[in-house]
Specification:
The complex is a heterotrimer. Chain A is built from 11 helices and 14 strands. By secondary structure, chain A is of the alpha+beta class. In chain A, strands 4-5-10-6-7 form a 5-stranded antiparallel β-sheet. Chain A has a 4-stranded antiparallel β-sheet with strand order 11-12-13-14, sandwiched between helices. By secondary structure, chain B is of the alpha+beta class. Chain B folds into 2 domains: about 80 residues, Beta-grasp domain (Ubiquitin-like (UB roll), Roll); about 80 residues, [2Fe-2S]-binding domain (DNA polymerase, domain 1, Orthogonal Bundle), CATH 1.10.150. Chain B is about 40% helix and about 20% strand. In chain B, helix 5 packs across helix 6. The radius of gyration of chain B is 17 Å and the shape is elongated. Chain C is α+β, with helices and mostly antiparallel strands. Chain C folds into 3 domains: about 170 residues, Aldehyde oxidase/xanthine dehydrogenase, a/b hammerhead (Aldehyde Oxidoreductase, domain 3, Alpha-Beta Complex), CATH 3.90.1170; about 325 residues, Aldehyde oxidase/xanthine dehydrogenase, molybdopterin binding domain (Aldehyde Oxidoreductase, domain 4), CATH 3.30.365.10; about 150 residues, Aldehyde oxidase/xanthine dehydrogenase, molybdopterin binding domain (Aldehyde Oxidoreductase, domain 4), CATH 3.30.365.10. Helices cover about 30% and strands about 25% of the residues of chain C. In chain C, the strands form 7 sheets. Chain C has a 7-stranded mixed β-sheet with strand order 3-5-1-12-9-10-11. Chain C has a 5-stranded mixed β-sheet with strand order 7-15-14-13-8. In chain C, strands 18-26-27-28 form a 4-stranded mixed β-sheet, with helices on both faces. The chains are: A alpha+beta, B alpha+beta, C alpha+beta. At the B-C interface, helix 2, helix 3, helix 4, helix 5 and helix 6 of B face helix 1 and helix 19 of C. Bound molecules: flavin-adenine dinucleotide and FE2/S2 (inorganic) cluster (2 copies).
Chain lengths: ~290, ~170, ~800
């Protein structure tokens, strides 16, 4: 099981990488952690003409705060985020989810941007990015643009990235106010891609008593199902409110079915896990309002 | 920028187990194949070439890498540690002995990758819980042992080391 | 022997194998390069489950740089005879497809090139013109008249059918107070050793012979079969097994057709060839256990005594019957009464071909499938008769004072005390408390279940049991068959150090360590002073048809051969030393590296000097004594007789016993099983090395747990293979396995000098059914199938859901 032949390029600058992308377009594959791309090459399911190894572009490995946004460069590894106190503080939902991404070993090299670019429907990073209303920074020789996660993920292994674009960073809105979050997934074994994953956050603003929440469900359909909203006054009955949100999200869904799980099971898990995480997030953020 | 067209071979130079090594690779040569068949370091094993089983795990510039999902050319200038390098590390002798005592290996095919992970893990987390050890080991498949011996061995060594350090 | 307080045997001697394995010094097949000029092979495999090959165009591939050659089935057929099996249905099995492919993954062409990368490039360039045919993968569907037929010459897919009756099963069922009946599907699974197949084949024209290095594990009954396929004499095919093998669990038996393929191709291409299977090849086309569609009926009297059994086994053998199949259906046959006293048994065995990969040896070898029926039936009967599941088993166990016991189908149970094992199990698992917890949980509406299972582990196979596939008349015509010979050689060289050769091709089971313990005891040495060579070589060492690593034969039989050989060396050393010390041989003991006078330990001489005398000074030896210290023992357990005219056979030498208990809760909302407690008690006879025994139990448990929970080699309805990676074929990880509480006790086997029994398969046989029993108990169900995947258990726990 060996890769087909390709040209290997190791740019020393982002500009060089982008030039290659603009020259080869969809004949090129960006190589980050290699944990998804490597096996695909070995199985000859990916057959790029050119492999662009971005691992030497040290600038892309930065974790930076930019106002209300946490910017995670394309070479930030999953383990880096797990080890970062700043990330724990600013994006606790992501940190909770990353513990479910693969294994200790794969997280040591696997990047967040690679996971976003790969866009597996069950992957945790895309789910969190979308649930948190984050964005993807795409850079090409033509432009730098920020695409909201809502628009970026378009289906199984399909994104809004143009062939000459590279993901240079994932942009994470940092939670403010009093916040609650919860992440849960069901997978056959620990470290497997989820059958269904559920992420939720909620926050309450001290200045006006208003609240916001987000709920995302991964693995159900080809892209994460997300509901976000908020209001001026926290709902009276959180459980009832959670039921309404779930009903809204899961209405009319057509869950995937595969060797692992039936559509009925996915539908049920979406409902069950969604309610669980949303309620937990709401209770942490808004709990006091009730009492 | 380094560019290597398909089908061409280049010399890859890296430090493996503290020693300078070099050998030839094509752009598509897997690091696992390079280590084994070019550098003749057969201690690194290949169990799947899908990035899943962990048998091929090595330490590459301080991070764990599935060498089957890494290209040899990526290792240019890198520092790599394989099981042969770990073998020369006296500090890991207690871990090896604990593996043997607790029946942490049978056929031993999975063992080199597990030793790479375990040593990397213990350096980062000298006093782990059992759940953490099990979580770390879940990145490796072993079909012989049921993992129990590995968990015991790693916890025992961690405990002895931290107790030793606290005295 | 082996029970002296100071003996090495029985002690937790750390394994001698470990040092090399822990430091990267152990050499496996893919690490070997035994001769220059080796070319690397990639196999082009069929993407179709069933298709006619209309043509193969390999011109482009042959012309590619670095390519040495391409060989197709049509070319190889000229040089090969079909591989035979005990099943006589007319169908030819070649190691490569000739004019038709019959499973997705079947080899279609072989490419040799300078390296594997180039070989794979060339394989892609071969154009095969396929005419796809309808496929069938389900064993019941394959029996239907309109089903696609795999082997037209066989006239259908049913390629083997035999019925057996022992005692009077008709009467037992007619008189029964209660009959339980179960029908189920057992999934297709594979032990997937971490090291895949690998081989290097080398043909020499003059003299004409083949040498093949590989991680083949035997049984070496397949060696003459390979030679016949190559059309040569046995001594023209030399098989060398690498000293280290990365696990096998039976699976590496299925390597032999590839050895034939490589050998023949090496001849055609004129160079040595190396092939290392990749994981996709391994999962799709190496070997696996059979999936089955089985039924069982069990008759009981009003007190829960099991009075009759009927087995209806429908075995999906895959595309071909590959020897030693149909052994997997006959492995448990002679012991079809399990650990119970039942005397009336009917068995129907049907083998059906389908478009799946051919089956072969796999850990437990027919045991998991057998016990799934029997032990589900015992639990079901307990429920129906309102008898505690432990009690119903207790009532039916063979009596502890009744050994040796001849089972109705011919198994001769060597020793045991099953009741004792069960009591230990109930005690360590704290059964009363678990039952109370179950009551409490149920009162709260939770789904809590307890499962139990018990069984024997037949070990050390009679090579003749597979001939039950033939009628007594056919067997008569074919000539007698029996036995399970073990070989071991012990040599002491002129410097007084010892080397042992084994025929057991271990793959991680610690044979070298245990052999060293045995020899150390016999010769008064320390285990680490003994070199044990496990790299088997049919061209230089002693071997037999039974040689190899399967059916736990090491601790059942091989240990006896080692002891016999070491004993003869010891005897000779004593005789020579007696002359030198001027005492009677009986007064000499071997201890601490010396031959010394018993009772006068300071009077003695170093073993090295005694050894030197036999090598350097033959003339000085006692009259008639042969020079040197080299001995080979070939040993056949007397109990392994030929099958009789009533189809009874002593199929195995030793019968270990085990019983398992699991308590678990089913999470209704997710279908997840929360294992509260898992306990397992084993009688493996005398324990030779506790580290090895515990390792085998825990490993077998992990295999059984994976088989129960996750593992399935899945195909879709059309025969496409769906489990091509370890992300699809799910093996348990360290985070999945629950703690196993393990205990053992010993009833010594009379079958070898140590009292040990074969072991290693037991847990893999019982863990699947005990988990199924617990889930059935938790959900109050009769029908439960494997694997207990989340989706399946969730659907069982929530029957009101539409399930789609
Ligand atoms: C055993 C195992 C278990 C796993 N389990 C999970 C899991 O549970 N959940 C999960 O989400 N993932 C899982 N993964 C995959 C995860 O580990 C990968 O890290 C991740 O999906 C890809 O990250 P990477 O950096 O390795 O990307 P690569 O493999 O290098 O690249 C992946 C894809 O993204 C493209 N790409 C990478 N970076 C960029 C960029 N900056 N711009 C544009 N395109 C880019 C590549 O061309 C390629 O197509 C698992 C992997 C393994 C081997
Ligand atoms: S061989 Fe690399 S992960 Fe299995
Ligand atoms: S020891 Fe054999 S696979 Fe782990």
């Amino acid at each position: 099981m060996k890769p087909a032949a390709f040209e290997y390029c190791r740019p020393d600058s982002l500009a060089e990488a982008l030039a290659l992308l603009s020259e080869y377009g969809d004949e090129a594959a960006v190589l980050a952690g290699g944990l998804s791309l490597g096996p695909l090459l070995n199985m000859r399911m990916a057959r790029p003409e050119v492999v662009i190894d971005i691992n030497r572009l040290a600038d892309l490995a930065r974790i930076e705060r930019d106002g209300e946004v946490l910017r995670l460069g394309a070479l930030v590894r999953q383990a880096d985020v797990l080890a970062s106190a700043e990330c724990q503080d600013l994006v606790p939902l992501l940190v909770a989810a990353l513990g479910h991404v693969g294994h200790y070993q794969t997280r040591d090299r696997g990047t967040l941007a690679g996971s976003a670019a790969h866009a597996d429907p069950s992957a945790e990073v895309p789910l969190c990015l979308k649930t948190l209303a984050g964005a993807v920074e795409l850079t090409s020789e033509r432009q730098v643009r920020r695409v909201p996660a809502d628009d970026f993920f378009q289906g199984t292994l399909t994104t809004a990235r143009a062939d000459d674009e590279m993901i240079t960073a994932l942009l994470w809105p940092t939670d403010r106010g009093r916040q609650g979050f919860a992440f849960e997934e069901v997978s056959e074994r620990r470290g497997d891609f989820a059958i269904v994953a559920a992420a939720a956050w909620a926050e309450r603003h001290d200045y006006d008593e208003g609240y916001r929440y987000g709920l995302g469900l991964g693995g159900v359909e080809e892209w994460s199902l997300v509901s976000r909203g908020g209001g001026r006054r926290a709902p009276e009955d959180l459980a009832e409110f959670a039921d309404e949100v779930i009903a809204g999200v899961t209405e009319d869904i057509e869950p995937m079915r595969d060797q692992r799980a039936s559509a009925a099971y996915r539908r049920h898990l979406a409902d069950h896990l969604g309610r669980k995480v949303l309620l937990r997030a709401l209770e942490t953020a808004l709990g006091e309002v009730q009492s | 920028m380094m560019r290597l067209p398909p089908g061409q071979r280049t010399r890859v130079t890296c430090t493996v187990n503290g020693q300078a090594h070099s050998g030839f690779a094509e752009s598509r040569t897997l690091l696992s194949d390079f280590l084994r068949h070019e550098l003749h370091l057969y201690g690194t094993h290949v169990g799947c070439e899908h990035g899943v089983c962990g048998a091929c795990t090595v330490v590459l510039d301080g991070r764990l890498a599935r060498s089957c999902a890494t290209l040899a050319v990526q290792a240019e200038g890198a520092e790599i540690t394989t099981v042969e390098g770990l073998a020369a590390d006296e500090g890991l002798e207690p871990l090896r002995q604990a593996f043997s005592r607790h029946g942490a290996l049978q056929c031993g095919f999975c063992t080199p990758g597990i030793l790479a992970s375990a040593s990397h893990f213990l350096a980062a987390r000298p006093d782990p819980t059992e759940a953490e050890v099990r979580d770390m080991l879940s990145g490796h498949l072993c079909r012989c042992t049921g993992y129990e011996g590995m968990v015991r061995a790693i916890l025992e060594v961690a405990r002895e080391t931290t107790e030793g350090a606290n005295q | 022997m082996g029970d002296r307080a100071d003996s090495w045997v029985g002690r937790a001697v750390p394994r001698l194998e470990d040092a090399a394995l822990l430091t990267g010094n152990a050499r496996f097949i893919d690490d070997l390069s035994p001769l220059p000029g080796i070319r690397h092979v990639a196999l082009l495999r069929s993407p179709h489950p069933h298709a006619r090959i209309l043509g193969i165009d390999a011109e482009a591939a042959r012309a590619m740089p670095g390519v040495v050659g391409v060989v197709t089935g049509a070319e190889l057929r000229e040089h090969l005879n079909p591989l035979a099996s005990a099943v006589r249905a007319p169908m030819a099995y070649y190691p490569i497809a000739i004019d038709k492919v019959r499973y997705a993954g079947e080899p279609v062409a072989l490419v040799a090139a300078e390296d594997r990368y180039l070989a794979e490039d060339a394989a892609e360039a071969i154009e095969v013109d396929y005419q796809p045919l309808d496929a069938v993968v389900d064993p019941l569907a394959a029996l239907a008249t309109e089903a696609p037929v795999l082997h037209e010459e066989a006239g259908g897919n049913l390629v083997h059918h035999r019925q057996f009756a022992y005692g009077d099963p008709e009467a037992a069922f007619a008189e029964a107070a209660e009959v339980v009946r179960l029908a189920w599907r057992y999934p297709r699974q594979s032990a997937t050793p971490m090291e895949t197949y690998g081989a290097i084949a080398h043909f020499e024209a003059a003299p004409e012979r083949y040498t093949v290095w590989s991680n083949f594990q035997g049984p070496f009954i397949l060696q003459p079969l390979m030679a016949r396929a190559l059309g040569i004499g046995g001594n023209q095919l030399r098989l060398i097994a690498a000293a280290h093998s990365g696990g096998s669990f039976g699976i590496k038996q299925g390597l032999y057709p590839y050895l034939v393929l490589l050998a023949a191709a090496s001849r055609l291409l004129g160079c040595p060839l190396k092939w290392v299977e990749d994981r996709l090849e391994h999962l799709s086309a190496s070997s696996s256990a059979a999936d089955r569609a089985d039924e069982i009926e069990a008759a009981f009297d009003g007190e829960g005594h099991l009075t009759g059994l009927r087995f209806d086994n429908l075995v999906n053998v895959g595309a071909y019957v590959r020897a030693p199949e149909p052994a997997s259906v006959y492995r448990m046959h002679a012991a079809a009464n399990g650990c119970y006293r039942v005397r009336h048994i009917a068995i129907q065995n049907r083998l059906v071909t389908t478009n799946k990969l051919p089956i072969g040896l796999n850990r437990g070898y027919g045991g998991p499938q057998f016990y799934f029926g029997l032990e589900r039936a015992m639990d079901l009967a307990a429920r129906r008769l309102a008898i505690d599941p432990a009690e119903i088993r207790r009532r039916n166990f063979l009596a502890a004072d009744g050994f040796p016991y001849e089972g109705p189908a011919g198994a001769i149970y060597d020793s045991g005390d099953y009741g004792k094992g069960l009591e230990m199990l109930l005690e360590i698992a704290d059964y009363p408390t678990l039952r109370a917890r179950r009551d409490a949980a149920r009162a709260e509406g939770r789904l809590f279940g307890i499962g139990l299972a018990a069984g024997v582990e037949p070990s050390g196979s009679n090579m003749a049991y597979v001939t039950l596939a033939q009628t007594p008349e056919e067997r008569e015509k074919a000539g007698g068959r029996s036995g399970g010979v073990a070989c071991a050689s012990v040599a002491m060289d002129p410097s007084g150090t010892v080397t042992v050769h084994l025929d057991s091709t271990p793959a991680g089971q610690g044979h070298a360590t245990v052999a060293a313990q045995i020899v150390a005891d016999a010769l008064g040495l320390r285990p680490e002073q003994i070199q044990v060579d496990t790299a088997m070589d049919t061209g230089s060492g002693a071997w037999s048809l039974a040689s190899g690593n399967y059916s736990n034969r090491f601790a059942a039989i091989v240990v006896g051969a080692i002891a016999e050989s070491a004993g003869r060396i010891a005897g000779k050393l004593k005789a020579v030393a007696a002359e030198l010390l001027e005492v009677a041989a009986d007064d000499v003991e071997l201890a601490e590296g010396r031959a010394r006078i018993a009772g006068v330990p300071e009077q003695g001489i170093a073993l090295g000097r005694v050894a030197a005398a036999t090598h350097w000074h033959p003339a000085g030896l006692p009259d008639g004594m042969a020079p040197g210290l080299y001995d080979t023992a070939l040993l056949n357990p007397a109990v392994l007789d030929a099958p009789d005219g009533a189809d009874r056979v002593a199929s195995a030498v030793t019968f270990g016993f085990l019983c398992d208990l699991v308590a678990l809760e089913v999470e209704r909302a997710t279908g997840r099983l929360r294992i509260e407690r898992y306990a397992s008690v084993h009688d493996v006879g005398r324990v030779l090395n506790p580290i090895v025994v515990e390792g085998q139990v825990r490993g077998g448990f992990a295999h059984g747990f994976g088989a129960a929970m996750f593992e399935e080699l899945a195909y879709d309805q059309d025969g496409n293979f769906l489990s091509g990676s370890f992300a699809d074929y799910l093996c348990p990880t360290s985070a999945d396995l629950p703690p196993l509480e393990f205990a053992n006790y010993e009833t010594a086997s009379p079958q070898n000098p140590f009292g040990s029994k074969g072991m290693g398969d037991g847990s893999s046989m019982l863990t699947p059914v005990v988990l199924a029993n617990a889930v059935a108990d938790a959900l109050d169900l009769d029908e439960v199938e494997l694997p207990l995947s989340l989706d399946r258990v969730w659907r069982l726990a929530n029957p009101e859901t539409d399930g789609r």
